[in-house]
Amino acid sequence: MKTTLTTTALSTLLALGLATAASAEIRIGATLSATGPAAFLGDPEAKTLEMLVEEANAAGGLNGEEIALVLYDDGGDPNKARTFATRLVEDDEVVAIIGGSTTGTTMSIASVAEDAEIPFISLAGAIEIIDPVRPFTFKTPHTDRMACEKIFEDMQKREITTIGMISGTDGFGASMQAQCKDVVGNYGITIAADETYNPTDADMTAQLTKIKNTAGVQAVLNPGFGQGPSIVTRNYKQLAIELPLYQSHGVASDGFIELAGADAANGVRLPGTALLVPGLLAADDAQKSVVDAYKAAFEGKYSTPVSTFGGYANDAWLILSNAITTAGEADPAAIRDAIEATTGLAGTTGIYNMSAENHLGLDLSAFRMLEIKDGGWTLVE
Question: So which residues are the signal peptide here (predicted)?
Fold first, then answer.
């Protein structure tokens, strides 16, 4: 059975292949960007959910009932995501939805889930997903605002007070740029240069040259997503800019190092998750056993390295399956209440403590400040 599909018809076949009327007891829906420009997010997410549902069913399901995963590939298109979310609710009659590989697809799914009062766990980063709080919408990745705060904390430690920013104009980049500007003053840091680039741009030399020539700049921050940050990193090296470069958690994966090139990426810092540095975690780290288990299972099944993004799906499943077990029933309202009551749940991304006011449940301690050295990840002390 294929994991990633390119058409609505094939997506429907995938859904039917994973869930039939005869076997479905607890129907879980998902719409992910398994193909298209955000496939580096959606593909490991889809693989993760398939693997975890398979494992759960082999162990007897949830509350003694089999789980049926109805999975669609929206290709990163918000309109398709809305269509699939509607189908999941109206036709497939799911009790919960996991998905939204990007902020754009997430917001489309959320509108459907809220109207239908179906719990929805997003895998995207923007703070607007959970702020303001929507009754049925949750998420697993840190917010872009938190990423800004983690980066500025590190800059403070390095006594950096003046920076340049070069941000993507995509939904993620624009949101993080706005969040960074909103909190930067709390850390005594000034933005002296502020440049942008489009998602399709293939060279950012002009913008980086302006930043390089701006007096007083001590470091550069790139709120970005997709291929843009890799291009920025390569251009940064080509221009021989001898200043610290910070990237966002949106590129916290080995794929970023490969695209940028290990030499160009050397020294880049960004906030990431424990999943990127499993071998560096202390034996008593609360996340270590979860990280090790997910990494071993995923890499054993698919023969490909785990990614932060697959980890977001892993955590969404942990939260949802724990909620269904705790609720003791597969009623959407009961599941929603149980998700909101989640406390002390260790995932690959952090320790989740949800509440009525907090539908993320992570704080800054969940982020690890990482630096790329010799083509790999290291922990910044």
Answer: 1-24
In order of 32, 87, 133, 337, the CA distances from 138 in angstroms are: 16, 20, 8, 12
Q: At what angle do helices 103-116 and 171-183 cross, to 10 degrees?
A: 90
Cβ(45)–Cβ(100) under 8 Å? no
Q: Which domains does the chain have, with CATH numbers?
A: 8-143+289-366 (3.40.50.2300), 144-278+367-379 (3.40.50.2300)
At 50, which amino acid appears?
E
Paired residues of 373 in beta bridges: 376
Contact by Cβ (8 Å): 243, 214: no
For the segment 145-200, what is each residue's pLDDT rounded down to a tens digit?
999 999 999 999 999 999 999 999 988 899 999 999 999 999 999 999 999 999 99
Burial track 223-243 (b if 16+ CB lie within 10 A, e otherwise): bbbbbbbbbbbbbbbeeebee
Q: How far apart are the first and last CA of the chain?
A: 44
pTM of the entire predicted model? 0.88
Give the integer Cα–Cα distance in Å for 290 and 349: 10
The residue written with tokens 């990614």 in the block is: 307
Q: Taking each helix axis as running N to C, give the angle between helix 308-327 and helix 39-58, from 0 to 180 degrees, rounded to the nearest 10.
A: 40
Q: What is the pLDDT of residues 65-108, one digit of tens each?
A: 999 999 999 999 999 999 999 999 999 999 999 999 999 999 99
Q: How far apart are CA 195 and CA 41, in angstroms?
A: 26
Angle between helix 205-212 and helix 228-238 axes, rounded to 10 deg? 50
What is the number of alpha carbons within 13 Å of residue 357 lying toward its C-beta? 0
Residues of the chain with pLDDT under 70: 1-24
A 10 A CB-CB count for 258 gives 12
